[in-house]
Design brief:
- This protein is an alpha/beta fold and 731 residues long.
- The chain is 35% helix and 17% strand.
- It contains 22 helices and 20 strands.
- The protein has a 7-stranded parallel β-sheet with strand order 10-11-9-12-13-8-14, with helices on both faces.
- Helix 13 links the parallel strand 12 and strand 13.
- The longest helix is centred in the middle third of the chain and has 31 residues.
- The two termini are 35 Å apart.
- It binds adenosine-5'-diphosphate and magnesium ion (MG).
Length: 731
């Protein structure tokens, strides 16, 4: 493969072919594709340099000027979109024409052969055509199975649909159907289908993420209706960059994305859109770096006597990873630019020890350190750990949460080390002299909250996260943020054994659980994740605890931990669990981070398919914290009920306990967005970039960002991406 030519020398050899890749395909709006191609041909040689210097301030409007404002029109301006469809589209996050244009097909269905039913062999994906003889509906557990007997003259077969009972109406006897799928456990597993005279199902076609009410086919139609508006899409990328990086016009890229002539064509379109995303991100990163270098912090010098005593007080020697992190941190603290360092390490890798080190560095300089945790449970846990060591060292330490009374609060703010929740950053909370702030699980805080901690002061900030960010990603996307990693848990720990079972076998999970409990170990049972209020969640957890007390776990001591318990109650419950007065803790996701009970060696996660990969990994980290072998049992709904990605998530957890590997899988499955659960990273805006596969593209975007003479037309787009982000803090 030919790489892009080095900058400056590319002019005469630059192929503009990439801009021509869009070809009309059979069912595309031909006129549009032709028009788009015509506007930008015939091809010319590109200039050798940026033409920025002698560019007029404003180009005269041309005939047929583009109208970017039409892209912001609501989708009900399209034919076929009434209030009901509009509502359904909104559920998919699609509100404007631009949203629909940028709605990325999840995959492309390749063309497959049409087969006679009598000739069906093996389990290749094929299309069959025939008419419906009869339909039947039945249930298996919560699974609703719809079966239609379909006959094509050569033979008949039972075609099955899962959980789509409403289809029964459409499949009256005699109806002609075209079914795409493969022979399976229940006859013919239908993946997509046409009813009546339509037949699109066997062809190469984009497949969109669909919802229950809005079929992929409907989305496909609507995208077709929106596609002509791609002509109104501005393209802020300098032409010479497009030429050199062999990128098509943005509007052509969109046409290629939705109406490709083949996989390659679609990929060229996707790459262009991915490049734009990555470039915006890189420009934003550069802005952030400039802003940070402009603020000042007091340098903290060399570690002193308190640190020597701290090291002696620890019951273990620090691991080489921890030592390296500390060295890096000391380097930052000695500078006048406020530290912005990300300490990332898998759950249980020992980040807290490093965090406390940073806090004590502030204290030995006569100043203060603060540790901010995202939940009260976590803050309390941290406080217990930190306070024990502080007491030994003669350092004052206080806890400050929203339930602390006013008087306690004022005292707390004078302590050497203050541990708390976002109560630390409420208006009117004034520290004596904050020098170092540690933010735990930084991605759980909003930008505004993290900003408020640094308000009016420039403390050195250490962000901690257990959500592993793949190294290359961290270094490229978070360009200006220093990263320390502590990846190795102490050697005595055994990897957690993870099993994935379906509900019908949940009984076995509990049998296994009681066996371990009888050996004196403890366990967690995590309740299903439902979209509900904290109160509903709490009630569901209480009910589940009650059910287990009467059924599978009769005779064992069961406690229930949820977000509705008051802090005192929660602390007491955790203390009882830690003291082994309880065998099992039934919990909501409040136990996700921080809970540390080494004797708890089993975790059962109910309806595990509802959780995200990162979240399951976090939950699993609550076990495997001692020397004993630990187990994690993921209980899911029936496999037929699960999406492909849900299955892939669960399988990945069974396959590995390595957080970095899981992060990579998560990247692949989710396409980058939401990796950190952040808006502020700009990462959640990555719809097209595949961070793993696009590493080369990311590097290109980085170097283009560095060489652009100014942000030009891109500035506005970058502003939009980083609109609510914090230029100083980790984004
Ligand atoms: P994290 O915050 O990264 O999840 P913690 O800091 O809570 O991890 O550490 C997990 C456990 O490992 C704690 O019980 C801690 O005391 C212990 N630990 C930390 N560092 C070491 C070390 N170097 N050697 C042995 N045990 C350690
Ligand atoms: Mg921790």
């Amino acid at each position: 493969m030919r790489g892009p030519a080095p900058s400056g020398s590319s002019g005469s050899t630059t192929p503009l072919d990439a801009a021509r890749v869009v070809r009309p395909v059979p069912y595309s709006p031909r006129t549009l594709a032709a028009q788009v191609t015509a506007t930008h041909g015939p091809k010319q040689k590109g200039p050798t340099r940026f033409a920025a210097l002698d560019q007029p301030a404003q180009w005269p409007p041309t005939r047929g000027r583009i109208r970017p404002e039409t892209l912001d029109r609501s989708l009900d301006t399209l034919p076929g979109v009434g209030p009901a469809v509009k509502r359904k589209l909104a559920k998919l996050g699609l509100e404007t024409i631009r949203d629909l244009l940028e709605h990325r097909p999840r995959r492309y269905e390749s063309a497959v052969d049409v087969r006679r039913i009598a000739d069906l062999r093996g389990d290749d994906e094929v299309v069959i055509e025939g008419s419906v003889l009869t339909t039947t509906e039945r249930r298996r557990g919560r699974l609703k199975i719809l079966t239609a007997r379909v006959d094509d003259g050569s033979a008949s077969i039972s075609a099955t649909w899962f959980n789509q009972p409403w289809l029964a109406k459409q499949l009256q006897p005699g109806t002609r159907v075209r079914l795409r799928g493969r022979p399976g456990r229940y006859g013919f597993d239908v993946r997509s289908f046409d009813v009546g005279e339509v037949d699109a199902t066997a062809d190469f076609a984009p497949v969109y993420p669909a919802s229950e009410e809005l079929t992929a086919k409907k989305v496909r139609e609507l995208v077709g209706a929106a596609l002509p508006f791609a002509c109104d899409l501005p393209d802020p990328l300098p032409a010479v960059v497009k030429a050199r990086e062999r990128l098509p016009l943005r509007r052509d890229a969109l046409v290629a994305l939705h109406r490709p002539s083949g996989e390659d064509d679609a990929e060229v379109g996707r790459r262009r859109l991915a490049f734009d995303e990555l470039l915006r991100l890189q420009i934003g990163v550069a802005r952030r770096a400039r802003a940070r270098e402009a603020s000042l912090a007091a340098p903290l010098g060399e570690p002193g006597e308190l640190i020597v005593r701290y090291r002696q007080a620890l019951p273990f020697a620090l691991t080489p990873h921890q030592e390296t992190a500390i060295r890096e941190l000391d380097g930052d603290l000695a500078r006048t630019v406020p530290m912005q360092r990300l300490l990332q390490g898998d759950v249980g890798s020992g980040k807290t020890v490093v965090a406390l080190y940073a806090l004590l560095r502030a204290v030995e300089n006569g100043r203060q350190g603060a540790l901010m945790a995202p939940t009260e449970t976590l803050a309390e846990q941290h406080f217990l750990t930190v306070e024990a060591i502080c007491r030994e060292l003669g350092v004052s330490c206080a806890l400050l949460t929203s339930s602390s009374p006013k008087r306690e609060r004022d005292m707390a703010l004078h302590a050497d080390v203050v541990v708390g929740t976002h109560a630390l950053i409420q208006p009117g909370v004034g520290f004596r002299d904050l020098a170092v702030a540690v933010v735990d699980e930084q991605h759980r805080f909003g930008v505004q909250q993290r900003k408020a901690l640094a308000e009016g002061r420039s403390p050195h900030v250490l962000h901690m996260t257990a959500t592993p960010i793949p190294r290359t990603l961290a270094l490229t996307v978070y360009g200006d943020l220093a990263v320390s990693e502590i990846a190795k848990p102490p050697a005595t720990r055994k990897p957690i054994v993870t099993a994935w079972i379906t509900e019908d076998r949940a009984g076995e999970a509990y049998t296994r659980l009681t066996r371990v409990l009888d050996e004196g170990r403890q366990a967690y049972v995590v309740c299903p994740l439902v979209e509900a209020s904290e109160t509903t969640l709490a009630r569901a957890a209480e009910q589940e605890a009650e059910r287990l007390r009467r059924a599978e776990l009769r005779g064992y001591r069961i406690g229930c931990l949820h977000g509705r318990l008051n802090p005192g109650g929660r602390r007491e419950l955790m203390a009882r669990f830690k003291a082994r007065e309880l065998d099992v803790l039934v919990a909501t996701t409040v136990i996700e981070v921080g809970v540390d009970v080494p004797n708890a060696t089993v975790m059962v996660v109910q309806e595990a398919d509802r959780f995200g990969l990162a979240q399951l990994h976090q939950l699993r980290g609550r076990v495997g914290r001692g020397a004993e072998q630990s187990y994690c049992l993921l209980v899911s709904r029936a496999k037929e009920e699960l999406s492909d990605t849900a299955q892939a998530r669960l399988q990945a957890l069974v396959d590995t306990t390595d957080g970095f590997e899981l992060a990579e899988v998560d990247l692949d499955l989710r396409g980058g967005g939401q990796l950190l659960g952040t808006r502020q990273s700009g990462l959640s805006d990555l719809r097209f970039a595949k961070l793993r596969a696009d590493r080369g593209l990311l590097e290109r975007a980085r170097s283009v960002a560095a060489e652009l003479p100014d942000e030009g037309l891109l500035a506005a787009e970058v502003d939009a991406v980083f609109a609510d982000t914090d230029p100083d803090a980790l984004a």
